[in-house]
Structure formats: C-alpha cells, structure tokens
Design a protein that fits this description.
β20 (449-462) and β21 form a beta hairpin. This protein has a 26-stranded antiparallel barrel. It has helices spanning 171-177, 311-316; strands at 2-9, 14-24, 27-36, 43-44, 50-51, 59-72, 78-101, 107-133, 136-160, 189-216, 219-242, 245-273, 277-300, 331-350, 356-377, 380-402, 408-420, 431-432, 438-441, 449-462, 467-479, 481-488, 495-502, 505-517, 525-544, 552-570, 573-588, 591-608, 613-625, 635-647, 652-659, 667-672, 676-682, 688-697. It is built from two helices and 34 strands. The chain is mostly beta strands and 705 residues long. The longest helix has 7 residues, at 171-177. It starts with a strand and ends in an 8-residue tail after the last strand.
Length: 705
C-alpha cells in the first residue's frame, strides 16, 4: 500500500512525496520520500499520513528519504523497530526588528537579519524490546545522527537617541549603510554594526538506553542505563563594518566541543492493601555523570593577508594563522558533573463506595550535585568546585467522578518546587569583548533559583450529548531568578551583560475551553470556544553607563485571547466560521502604556461541485492595532483555495491549489520584557499556484488453496 504525489507551480515551486509500505501481521517495511519548497517543516508520520504543522516560517526547501522497518516473532516476545533517515534542508530567513530599550533616555534600535542555512542530517534510531513473560521486559533504544551545516547571514543594526519615522520598514539601515553621508539618521545615530557571517560545522551524536522491569507478585522492580556522546566542530568568519569607523574588522573562530553523559536509575514499586485504601510506595535512586569541554580560538585578522581568505582556507591553515590568536578572547573550559538522586513517591488510593475515585500522590526528591570546572583564558587559569544538596517536594490530588448518567468530572490540584543551579562558569572571573559593541562579564557567586508551581484544573464531560468543558489555573513564582543584568553606554553604544539574580518575577495564567453541538439530532453543527488569560510581572536590571547603582526595571504585562469557532460537517459539505482576538496590555514607569490587538476572522468552506470536483477555500482577515511602530499596524486579507477531483476510479487525485491569492501573507510578532520591547517582521512563503497529482496504490496478497 502507499501513495505518491507530484506537483509543480508558479515561480518554479514544486513538491514530490511518496509513501510505500509492505506489511504482514508481524512485520513491515516502509519507505518515505519528500521533496518540496512549499510545505515548510511538514513530514510523513509513522502511519503514512502527511502532517503539516502550524507556524511554518521562512522559505524552506526540503529533501528527505526514510526507511522504517519492524519485525517481531509470532509469539510477540521480541520486537525490532528501526528507522534510517537522510534529510537535506535549505532555509531562507529574513527578519526586521524595531525595539526600544527602557533606559532613562530611551534608545531606539533597528535590526535586519537575512540568513541562508543549509544543512544535512543522517540519522538512525530504534525501539527494540524483549518480553519473554508478563513478569519481565527488556527495552533497548539506540540513536545515532550526523549533522552538517553551512550557515551564512548578513545582519545590520543601529541604535538611535530619538524615535524614528521611516517611510518604509528598513529605511534607516538602508540609508546608513548605503553610503548616504547626508542621511538624517546619522544626526541621531549612537552606534551601528554590519556583520557578514560565514559558519560551518558538523556534529556527531550517539545515545542509547537499556531499560528493564521485573514483576514480583504485585510489586515491580525497574532499572535503566543510558549514555550520550556528542562531538562538535564549529568554525566561523565574521566581517564587521561600522558607519562611524573606516576600519573594517575580520574575526575567525575555531570552536571544538565535546561532551558525554552516562546515568543509571533503579526503582521499586511496592503496594499495600488496607481496608480503606491502597498505598503504593516507590523508592528510587539515580546516578548521573557528565563531562563537557568547550574551546574557542579567536583570531583578529585586521590588516593581515589572511583577512582576504575565505572560511575554508582559514580553517585549513589554522597553524599558520595561530600568531593572530587573541588570547584575551580565547579560552578552554572543561566541566564535570556528578549527581546522585534519591526519591520517594507515595500514592494513596482511597476506596469508596460511591462513584468518586480519590488519589493523593505526595513525593520528595533529594539531589546531591557536585560540579567542577577548569577554565583557562589569557592570565586566568583556575579550577572551581561546588557541592549542593537540594530537596524538591511535590504533591498531586486527583478526583475522578463518573456518575453513570453520561456525566464525568475530573479535578486536579498540584504543587511542585524545583531548584536550578547557576552555571559554574558564572563564578569564573573574565571579560569577553570578542563581538564589537558587546561585552560579557562574569565572576559572580550566584545563589540557586527556586521555582514554585501550583495548578488547578477541572474537566466536565457529557459523552452522549458531546458537551465538553475544561478549565485550569497555574501560578508560578521565581525566587532568585537568573537574569542578565544589562548596562548600556549612550556615548559608544556598547552593551555590557553580567549574570545576576533578581526577585519579584511571577506569573498567573488560566484557560477555559468549551465544546458543544448546536443541533441535537445530527450533531453536524459544532461550537468551540477557547479563552486564555495571562498576567506576568517581569523584573530585571537595566542601567546606563553613568549609573552608580543597579536599577531595577519592572514591566507588568496582561494578555488575553479568545477564539470562537462554529463548524458544520455533513457528508461532503463543511463550513467553519472563526474569530480570534489577542489583547496585549503592557505598562511600566519606563514607557508609555501599550494596548495592542491582534485579531482575525474568516471562513473555511468546502463543498462538492459538478463532475465530481470538490472545492475548498479559506477567506481570512488578519489585523493588528496599537503597536508603537505604525508599520506593524496592518490588515491582510488572505485567500486560499483548491480544487480536487478523484480520477482512475479513485486510484488517483488531481488537485489545483492557490496559496495567498492576493499576495498579502506576512508575519509580525511582539515581545516585551523588563529591558526592552521588540516588534518583529519575519518572511513567510508568499503567493503561488500549483497543480499536483496523487496516486494511491495497494496490492493484496494472493491466497492459494
């Protein structure tokens, strides 16, 4: 069985994909092929269905082939399931960003990023099991991959001391770097930077896990062993230029990395049956050890013969250019970690005579973490050690009710405490200014970050009438939240980051979803409503170079979204009317209050036409209002449609589709934190038309007497 599709469209867009499988009750072998430049990160799932995930960005060309096989014995005691894949991809990505830094005197930035990334990945993965009896299982899951990338991009950026009024998006950067010496933007310019980046590298990864369980009466013993190995070889060439300086800069870096990890876990599940409850006790122990080495050899090639070389030539002649190494920005780091984890889980199942099931699951986990880092950079040659004990409790209450009258209730109440140790690298005293206009400092002993999470959820189901409702509320509090304190020099445009921790970050979010049929008999009409609410209090450090003390920047953001959808599905007819709105309210003492709306509304409609042709269309209006940069306040009316017809007695399907008929597709996003707000445009696949043919084939095994 299988299917194959070929298509060709305007602007030389294409797609070709194939799925073929031969199977028996105890085996199968499948082959998948895919080549296209219109489907983004779409893929074939293991069952042969074509999946198109929402949110594809950039312009993506993909070539992929996979072979999947499964074999098991007739008694189903052992099973081998493995996959081999080869995937090559090219991604063209363009983004334009307007941002405002929340300093005492606001800094207004423009940033353009144009990237082409080519990569190829060869992978093998498997899921193999052996189950000789109901008491014993053994699983082995290996995975090996090789990844190679060739990444080039051009980025331009500039900071200004006054708000900009551009006639089109990107005008300021075009004017500055286009050689216009009389540009009005030069008068308000703080700093600028253009970077032509070339990067190449490869990565080898191997990992595997062996796990097993053995049942002893009503108890179970389980264990697992796993390992991970990764080896990266990365190199990059950066050619910098600035409007304020006539001296160009060339920087070459060789960055090898290697790390491994192995760990083992063992657990025992023990049950006790009492008259009023069943108690499950699960002690566990885990051990993990890891090693990571990271190096960077940074070369300054300004004014040398090597400044004209390409990336491959520089990498091949590393020895001859070693005299250009900048040791103040070159380093070698080796880090070791040992973690012992001891946990104890309880589960109380309360026996009741009514229709309710109540389960209480408290647990506690103790972690002993030992870290060591050896770090060398210029005059710094140090070794730092750290040992910590961490306790992480959690509790969950679950109530399930089934009245037997087509009505179900489910309640969940959870709490969890988690700890995060800051990287030991933050304790190393160094200063890194390898990137122009950017400085990173370290050398701080930071406390642990603690995250408290509490949540409540409720679900109600009426199966026969197809009415479903669920809602949830989640609260998160971060103590000593890790942040990157930022200091900006208004005279030079240099930004300095250093690690720090800050209190006062918390978040409260909730959601509710309701689904019901609008007609009682046929249930062809369906209403769906989804509501999301979120309040987030951001706190971070943001200072100007003249500030004598660290200043806290606080931003409060409330967002709300509502999605309504009415759908009709009957025979070959379908109609969906939808409306979505997203509201973003942000306020702070450092900027004017923002009230931004993203909303869209439209119709999806499908119906049969004459001569066996079916028709499907999407008509949708996307609108944005309230953004500080007016170029982001847009309206886009998107029209897609396709016509399809089954031919050759249903063995093939001919389809004609038009995507973004009016050529209005675009993607805008808004982001805010305690240091800045950003409004970003990114490119998407634009208008095209395509004709495709899909052929379905199947062959049944012939039986003979």
């Amino acid at each position: 069985m299988g299917n194959a599709t070929v298509g060709y469209g305007t602007d030389h867009h294409h797609e070709a994909r194939m799925f073929a499988m031969r199977f028996t009750p105890n085996s199968h072998i499948a082959m998948v092929g895919n080549s296209n430049d219109v489907r983004g990160d779409s893929y074939y799932s293991s069952d042969g269905n074509w999946q198109e995930p929402y949110g594809n960005t950039a312009e993506v060309t993909t070539h992929e082939v996979k072979v999947d096989g499964m074999l098991r014995d007739e008694d189903k005691k052992w099973k081998l399931s493995d996959q081999l894949s080869l995937k090559a991809q090219k991604r063209d990505y363009l983004s334009k960003t307007s941002s405002t830094m929340f300093l005492g005197d606001d800094v207004y930035s423009r940033y353009l990023f144009n990237n082409t990334n080519k990569n190829i990945k060869l992978g093998f993965s498997g899921t193999n099991s052996y189950t000789p009896s109901k008491q014993f299982t053994l699983d082995f899951t290996p995975k090996v991959s090789y990844y190679h990338y060739d990444n080039n991009y051009t980025s331009t950026s500039a900071d200004f001391n006054r708000q900009l009024t551009e006639r089109y998006m990107g005008e300021a950067l075009d004017s500055l770097f286009g050689g216009n010496l009389e540009s009005e933007y030069r008068k308000i310019l703080i700093s600028s930077l253009k970077n032509q980046y070339y990067g190449k590298g490869n990565e080898l990864t191997a990992e595997g896990k062996v796990s097993s369980s053995y049942r002893i009466r009503n108890d179970r013993l389980s264990w697992s062993l796993s390992g991970y190995y990764n080896n990266k070889k990365n190199r990059s060439l950066n050619n910098y230029e600035r409007v304020e300086s006539a001296n160009d800069m060339a920087r070459f870096s060789d960055m090898p990395q290697r790390n491994y990890r192995y760990e083992g876990n063992i657990g025992y599940d023990y049950s006790l049956d009492f008259p009023a409850l069943i108690l499950y006790i699960s002690p566990q122990y885990g051990f993990k050890q890891s090693y990571a080495s990271d190096s960077r050899w940074h070369h300054i090639l300004d004014g040398t013969e090597a400044s004209a070389w390409g990336l491959d030539q520089l990498y091949s002649n590393r020895d001859s250019i070693s005299r250009y190494i900048d040791y103040s920005n070159s380093y070698r780091s080796q880090a070791w970690n040992k973690t012992n984890t001891m946990g104890l889980d309880f589960s109380f199942y309360f026996k009741r005579e009514d229709y309710k099931n109540i389960t209480l699951d408290p647990s506690i986990q103790f972690r002993n973490v030992y870290d060591r880092i050896s770090y060398t950079r210029a005059q710094t040659d140090t070794t730092i050690r750290r040992s910590r004990w961490l306790m992480e409790p959690s509790v969950a209450l679950r109530i399930d009710a089934n009245t037997g009258n087509d009505l179900e209730y489910h309640w969940r109440l959870n709490y969890k405490l988690q700890h995060q140790l800051p990287s030991l690298l933050y304790a190393v005293n160094y200063r890194d200014d390898a990137t122009p206009l950017l400085v990173r400092e370290s050398g701080y002993n930071l406390p642990n970050t603690h995250q408290h999470t509490a949540s409540f959820s409720y679900e109600r189901k009426m199966i026969k009438t197809q009415r479903f409702f669920n809602t949830s509320l989640t609260y998160r509090l971060w103590q000593n939240m890790l942040c990157q304190s930022m200091r900006y020099d208004m005279s030079t445009g240099v930004t300095t980051y250093r690690p720090d921790v800050i209190a006062g970050n918390w978040e409260l979010s909730g959601q509710a979803r309701y689904q019901m049929p609008l007609d009682k008999k046929r249930k062809a009409w369906k209403l769906t409503s989804q509501t999301n609410l979120n309040y987030r209090n951001f706190r971070d450090y943001l200072n100007s170079a003249s500030a004598t003390t660290s200043l806290v920047s606080s931003v409060r953001r409330f967002s709300a979204s509502e999605s309504l959808q009415v759908g009709y599905y009957r025979n070959y007819y379908s109609l969906t009317v939808s409306a979505n709105v997203f509201y973003n309210h942000s306020e702070s003492d450092r900027f004017a209050t923002l009230n931004a709306f993203d909303f869209n509304y439209g119709v999806n409609y499908g119906m049969p036409l004459v001569w066996g042709i079916d028709f499907y269309t999407t008509l949708k209006m996307y609108s944005r209002r309230g953004y500080s940069d007016d170029k982001y306040n847009t309206d886009q009316f998107i029209v897609n449609f396709n016509l399809g017809k089954d031919i050759f007695k249903g063995k093939a399907r001919l389809k004609f589709e038009v995507f973004d008929l009016l050529n209005k597709m675009s993607n805008y996003s808004y982001n805010i934190n305690a240091q800045m707000q950003q409004e970003t445009y990114t490119n998407l696949l634009r208008r095209y038309a395509m004709v495709s043919l899909t052929y379905r084939f199947s062959q049944k095994k012939k039986h003979t007497k």
